[in-house]
Design a protein that fits this description.
Layout (H helix, E strand, L loop, with lengths): L27 H22 L4 H25 L9 H18 L13 H23 L4 H26 L6 H25 L10 H26 L9 H34 L3 H14 L2 H22 L13 H24 L4 H17 L4 H22 L1 H26 L5
Helix pairs in contact: 1-2, 1-3, 1-7, 1-10, 2-4, 2-6, 3-4, 4-5, 5-6, 7-8, 7-10, 8-10, 8-11, 8-13, 8-14, 9-11, 10-11, 11-12, 12-13
Length: 438
């Protein structure tokens, strides 16, 4: 059809990289990249579900933390250059392959299975590979930007140290006395996570920039939706009801579970998400970078962890209630109910922290809900399983109903602003498309 008479957003130094403009949106390749993280999150959930105890949960959290750091590194690069153009796509395909290998190695990252490649080492090598791809691409685009290159050198050093600690965790515990083996392994993993996240805080804001606030916010909103989707898939697959007869208890439990997930989605996307986008658009320079780092990179992690914890708890609940002949009066054995309640509380706690950091506000309704969910947990574990799910659903619905009434005017004002912004954007795009082709 020809080319429009417009100047492309390219680096002034290199025609092979295309810079992100302030009004940029998420590229399709970025969505394609997220597909491997769907499987990675799913693999973390399934691995933690094999052993629902403190050790299994800690393993899942540590692997999730490194996967999340890799995804954030990808997003930082994506906010600088268009990943679907120039030399970026081949690099992204390589990063996708590395993440997929990591996801395959997740079940063996702490305890290897005999007869194949050494799982802990494969995880470490995969992590190094995906982080290296993003650092090299970022380094290539940072020519002529000495401050950013100094920051990238610091991040490269932290990545190398973290990888070395993962390699040590793969081999050193085998040479330690049996009862200390797990302690050494966990200590090295915790150090690796601390090095990465600590460096992210320590290097400061100098040299960084958020080119497109809209792109940045949209990327994190989409990964939250990915986590919601992974939770639904994990609950359905992990319940192990495929091929069994569908009972009315299965239907009722599924409806209650989807209601809980829908209310958590609403808690983010109805008010806090759109308001945070407006705040990011209105903030510039290092202040915007600080909000992007603290609110999105650091405070979205507990939200993702909360959704995965909720899925871990919901799996045994749905399996228990979907089994033919189940005793409705019996509490659920194990920690499923506690994990479900804890996951909701953790997600809301992360959301409260995000709102406080980015918007500078607190909603008393959400603080009360967190306290209520945590306070009801000891009671819920003694209730019949269906009653425990119903109580959690009622609490989440009470949060939604209360905020619909109490925050009615604020919601209307914010939604009106969002509609006006959308209408203005659509009008500009319509006018743009009316221009003739050259």
């Amino acid at each position: 059809m020809g080319q429009r008479r417009r100047r492309s957003q390219r680096s002034p130094d290199d025609p092979l990289v295309h810079r992100v403009a302030p009004g940029a949106r998420v590229d399709r390749l970025e969505l394609f990249f997220d597909l491997v993280f769907v499987y990675a999150f799913f693999s973390v959930t399934n691995t933690a579900a094999r052993e629902l105890n403190a050790g299994g949960l800690l393993q899942g959290l540590l692997m999730l933390a490194l996967l999340w750091w890799s995804w954030c590194a990808h997003t930082v690069v994506a906010n600088r250059v268009r990943l679907g153009e120039g030399i970026a796509p081949p690099a992204m395909f390589g990063a996708m392959a590395a993440v997929f290998v990591i996801a395959l190695a997740v079940p063996h990252a702490f305890e290897d299975q005999p007869g194949g490649l050494y799982g802990p080492l494969i995880f470490a090598v995969g992590y190094f590979a995906v982080r290296s791809v993003h650092l090299v691409l970022h380094w290539y685009t940072a020519r002529g930007d000495p401050p950013l290159r100094r920051q990238l050198r610091r991040l490269s050093a932290s990545m190398s140290v973290a990888t070395a600690l993962l390699v040590l965790a793969a081999y050193l515990p085998e040479h330690v006395e049996g009862r200390y083996e797990n302690a050494v392994r966990f200590s090295l993993w915790i150090l690796a996570v601390a090095v990465e996240y600590g460096t992210g805080l320590r290097i400061g804001l100098w040299g960084w920039a958020v080119a497109s606030a809209g792109h940045w916010v949209e990327r994190f909103e989409l990964i939250v939706i990915v986590a919601f989707g992974e939770s639904i898939i994990s609950i359905g697959v992990g319940s192990e009801l495929t091929g069994q007869a569908i009972t009315w208890l299965t239907v009722v439990t599924a409806m209650l579970g989807i209601t809980v997930i829908a209310t958590l989605w609403w808690a983010y996307f109805d008010l806090v998400g759109p308001a945070a986008l407006h705040t990011m658009h209105g903030t510039h320079g290092t202040a915007r970078v600080a909000l992007a780092r603290d609110g999105y990179i650091y405070l979205h992690l507990p939200m993702i962890a909360g959704l995965i914890t909720l899925a871990l708890g919901a799996k045994p609940v749905l399996h228990h209630l979907g089994t033919l002949g189940v005793d409705l009066r019996a509490p659920l054995p194990g920690s499923g109910v506690a994990l479900g309640y804890g996951g909701v509380a953790l997600y809301l706690l992360g959301l409260v922290g995000f709102q406080l950091r980015v918007l500078g506000t607190l909603l008393w309704t959400r603080l009360i809900t967190i306290v209520l969910v945590l306070g009801l947990t000891p009671v819920a574990v003694r209730l019949p399983a269906l009653a425990a799910v119903a109580v959690l659903t009622a609490v989440c619905l009470a949060l939604l109903s209360t905020e619909l009434v109490v925050l009615r005017q604020s919601r209307h004002a914010l939604h009106d602003a969002v509609r006006r912004e959308r209408a203005a954007h659509e009008a500009r795009e319509t006018e743009w498309r009316r221009e003739p082709y050259g």
